[in-house]
């Protein structure tokens, strides 16, 4: 049960514009953003941060950013964000073999050592207490430059906000995200939980 109900995508012209932006990226406007829209300054700030974090400035691909988001969300247990992140990874070009084996990224041959280092960084940075240490740093620097590491931590931090927002709100998950969650994560026990 949602703590606060999302606004209708056609609530007003600004909300309609917001919904159209997300319809392009996910195929629907997330209920999380429609809930933020109760205070438009929050949704606007979130969208601007989202655009900045997800912009491709280096070699960190759009697909890898979304897989980083999934690892972060999986670490914190937010089922809403897990489903959104895996759906976005699919829509932004993640390889089918990676989507099918995201749970085994550490050992599956579909993932490169550079991707493993990035995903392990996401896992360590998302834990409480934070588990980023000198070994994580060393592995990152073997594959990525400082700007790319900043991009990755931007994704992890953005999803830290979203994980708190959506798990606390109990945001109702959209059917498109449910389909992706069931397809790629269901075999490992993913379910909607309180986001039904």
Automatic annotation (TrEMBL):
GO molecular function: peroxiredoxin activity
Domain (Carboxymuconolactone decarboxylase-like): residue spans on this chain: 40-120
InterPro entries in alphabetical order: AhpD-like, CMD-like
Alphabetized PANTHER family for the sequence: CARBOXYMUCONOLACTONE DECARBOXYLASE-LIKE DOMAIN-CONTAINING PROTEIN (PTHR35446:SF2), SI:CH211-175M2.5 (PTHR35446)
Protein name listed in UniProt: Carboxymuconolactone decarboxylase family protein
């Amino acid at each position: 049960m949602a703590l606060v109900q999302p606004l209708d995508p056609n609530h007003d012209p600004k909300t309609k514009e917001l919904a159209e932006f997300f319809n392009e990226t996910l195929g629907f406007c997330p209920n999380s953003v429609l809930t933020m829209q109760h205070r438009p300054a929050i949704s606007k700030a979130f969208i601007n941060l989202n655009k900045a974090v997800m912009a491709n400035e280096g070699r960190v691909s759009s697909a890898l950013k979304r897989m980083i988001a999934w690892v972060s969300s999986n670490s914190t247990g937010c089922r809403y964000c897990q489903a959104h992140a895996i759906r976005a990874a699919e829509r932004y070009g993640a390889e089918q073999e990676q989507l099918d084996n995201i749970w085994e990224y550490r050992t599956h041959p579909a993932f490169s050592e550079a991707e493993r280092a990035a995903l392990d960084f996401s896992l360590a940075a998302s834990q409480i207490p934070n588990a980023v240490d000198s070994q994580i740093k060393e592995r990152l620097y073997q594959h990525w430059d400082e700007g790319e590491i900043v991009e990755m931590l931007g994704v992890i931090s953005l999803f830290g906000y979203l994980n708190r927002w959506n798990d606390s709100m109990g945001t109702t998950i959209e059917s498109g995200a449910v389909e992706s969650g069931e397809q790629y994560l269901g075999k490992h026990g993913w379910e909607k939980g309180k986001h039904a």
